[in-house]
Structures are given as structure tokens and as C-alpha cells.
Amino acid sequence: MSNSSSPTRPAGYDPDAALLALRPAIAGQPAAIPTPATVADFQHQVLRPVLKLQHAVLLATVADFAHDYHLPLATADPTEATRFLTELLARNTRLRATLVGLVVGLLTQPELAFYRLHRAELNRRLLDLAEQRVLTSLDGLPAHPPS
Asked: What is this structure's pTM?
């Protein structure tokens, strides 16, 4: 893909720089390195900030899937809600693929190249992080709008 100007993209526009500028800082996180060299570095330097950026979208997506599968989260106690969501996140392939897409769509070109080399391990880590975020934010799951 070229970085040249087009009717919709001004000259000098750098999509990778724009994506990096969106990412929030994470307290206690070391300064980002241009291209993480290990899967662990990638998890901390890339996946965690992107998941933090996408937190509200992540919660809304999981809430929508829970609604589609008629999970009674509104009436469930926290232990039961945790069990419902853990099972949904573990077994629903469409949801898992959607969550991966929410993150991968915000990777820079070099990050995407690294991700493609380590896809299986990074997807596992990404989904583990996403599950942690959802389960620690049960109160933040948005109610599904009435149909």
C-alpha cells in the first residue's frame, strides 16, 4: 500500500503514526519500542494498549453476543454472570474472531507482519486479556438496547 496522496488521503499522511497516536498509555508500562521483538513484548507493548483503547467496544460486543444467546446477565449474580461469560468467550468462535478483529484492525503494518508470524500464540494471549477485561468489568457491560 502506498503512502502517496489521494483525494481522501492528504500528502504525507502516515496511517501507522495515526494508529499509534490513538493508543492510550498504560501506567507502569515501559516506553514502546518500534517493533516488539518477542511475543511477550508484543503483548505488553501492542495488545494491552489496543485492548484498553477498544475497552468500550469490547464490552458492547460481548454484551451484544450475550444478548443474542439469551444469557440472563441482568438477573444473574456475579458468579453466575462470570460463568456465563467465561463459557461464551471460550466456546463462541464468532465472538472470538470478532474480538481478534477488533484488535488486529488497529495494528500498524510492522505489527501486523509480526502478528502474522505468531498468530496462534498472540490470538491466545489477546483472548485471555480480553476475557480478563470483560470479567473485571461486569458492572460496565452495557445493557442491550430494546429491539
From this structure: 0.83
- How far out from the chain centre does Cα 16 lie? 17
89, 95 in Cβ contact below 8 A? yes
68 phi, psi to nearest 5 deg: -60, -30
Domains identified in the chain, total number: 1
Q: Has residue 31 been placed in a domain?
A: no
Using one digit for the tens of pLDDT, what is the confidence trace for 50-96? 999 999 999 999 999 999 999 998 889 999 999 999 999 999 999 99
Q: Is the confidence at residue 141, as pLDDT, over 70?
A: yes
For residue 13, the SS3 value is coil
Q: Note down the domain range covering 43.
A: 36-138
126 falls within a domain = yes
Q: Which parts of 1-146 fold into alpha helices (H)?
A: 15-22, 39-42, 48-53, 55-68, 78-91, 93-104, 109-117, 119-135
